[in-house]
Write a structure and sequence with these properties.
Blueprint (H helix, E strand, L loop, with lengths): L12 E7 L4 E7 L7 E2 L2 E4 L4 H22 L4 E8 L7 H13 L4 E2 L8 H7 L15 H20 L8 E5 L3 H12 L3 E5 L3 H11 L2 E2 L12 E4 L18 E3 L10 H8 L3 E3 L1 H4 L2 H9 L5 H25 L3 H12 L3
Parallel strand pairs: 3-5, 3-6, 4-5, 7-8, 7-10, 8-9, 10-11, 11-12
Antiparallel strand pairs: 1-2, 2-5
Helix pairs in contact: 1-11, 2-3, 4-5, 4-9, 4-10, 5-6, 9-10, 10-11
Bound molecules: nicotinamide-adenine-dinucleotide.
Length: about 350
């Protein structure tokens, strides 16, 4: 079931956890252990069956390997999935999960993910030290800063813009990341157009940068130099790609491509895409700072480095005439010596 799974990809360790007393059923996958550990979120979802949970954890832990490799920090990719809906999440179950993580002796570190939050991590922390993203940490701050550096870099590479003065950026989502991105862009002189299904958030974000509010249903096709998806996944798909209003896409939203073929669709449409896992790496860099693995100066340097990494990805894609997703993954594979 695991070794011949299509997503197995040489995972180093896949651990199945069960705790009868609390009903915990979880899988932790360590794709690559580097620097002694593999790091990635703990996802809580009521998967329809074990196979769906295994598929998700294998896919997600491999994606974390790529993400870490491209930050230049020596960590491997790991992930946990807990087969449980929100109603099953109890302090006892979280403690049991903490004990399971602890049994791996630090080879895996967890963090919040879909279905889990900082408060859950605080409960898990009572039974293991190997968890980050505790209350008080806000990864959207470094994520927005790293994304800002990525946007500055991609503007330079594709629009020949020496800085962001007058560059128009349409942002989908004015939450933790999108809202902060608006402020960074406003300070850099960019012209911001921002949309959110929560009109108050969009208005506050626009006011913070002298930008303009646009309707959520129009943001993808809004004429702009750069589109920055910072809300939902799967926004780049067969239907939306021909209608995009920008020739450059660079945003933090996870899993922007509905399917891998969309990376080729973007290339064929002459649209430059900054892969989400490259440009949103500020969150995990902030996590490394929180764990004391890097200091403030190291964190700032890595966030700025996201722009440099993105330029290398764009160069490589152009040179090899492949889409940016393939170029980024090939770079990550080289870094980890796969
Ligand atoms: N926060 C991080 O550290 C981090 C790190 C990496 C990736 N990401 C990804 O970046 C994205 C944004 O993260 P966040 O922390 O800002 O989340 P958030 O929930 O704070 O903000 C998302 C915003 O998008 C808005 N939204 C939802 N549907 C929309 C639509 N159809 N049109 C316009 N707006 C819509 C929501 O109202 C919300 O304000 C997510 O996909 C997240 O997974 C976040």
């Amino acid at each position: 079931m695991a070794f011949d799974h299509p997503e197995f990809d040489g995972h180093e360790e896949v651990v199945w956890f069960h705790d009868a007393a609390t009903g915990l059923k979880a899988i932790t996958a360590l794709h690559r252990v580097r620097g002694g550990s593999a790091l990635g979120g703990i996802r809580f979802l009521p998967y329809p069956d074990d196979h769906a949970a295994l598929t998700d954890v294998l896919r997600l832990s491999r994606a974390m390997t790529y993400k870490w490799a491209l930050t230049g920090l020596e960590f491997g990719g790991g992930k946990s999935v807990v087969i449980a809906g929100p109603e099953q999440k109890s302090p006892e179950l979280l403690h049991a999960m903490g004990r399971c993580i602890n049994s791996l002796g630090g080879r895996y570190h967890g963090a919040p993910d879909v279905g889990s939050c900082a408060e859950d991590m605080a409960v898990i922390r009572e039974t293991t030290q190997y968890v980050a993203g505790l209350p008080g940490s806000d990864t959207s701050i470094p994520t927005a800063k790293g994304l800002f550096h990525a946007i500055a870099a991609i503007a330079k590479a594709t629009l020949d813009a020496q800085d962001l003065t007058g560059v128009t950026v349409a942002i989908q989502g004015a939450g933790g990341v999108g809202g902060r991105l608006c402020r960074h862009l406003g300070e850099a002189g960019a012209a911001v157009k921002v949309a959110d299904v929560d009109a108050r958030l969009a208005e506050a974000a626009a006011a913070s940068c002298g930008g303009e509010v646009i309707a959520p249903e129009k943001v993808l096709s809004e004429p702009a130099d750069i589109l920055s998806p910072c809300a939902l996944g799967a926004v780049l798909n067969e239907e939306s790609i021909p209608t995009l209003g920008a020739k450059v896409v660079c945003g933090a939203a996870n899993n922007q491509l509905a399917e891998l073929a969309d990376a080729d669709r973007l290339l064929e449409a002459g649209i430059t895409w900054g892969p989400d896992y490259v440009v949103s790496a500020g969150g995990i860099i902030g996590g490394a700072r929180e764990m004391g693995i890097i200091d403030d100066a190291g964190c700032e340097a890595r966030l700025k480095g996201i722009g440099d990494t993105l330029l290398k990805v764009l160069d490589r894609a152009r040179g090899a005439q492949v889409n940016t997703d393939l170029a980024a993954k090939a770079m990550a594979r080289e870094i980890i010596g796969d």
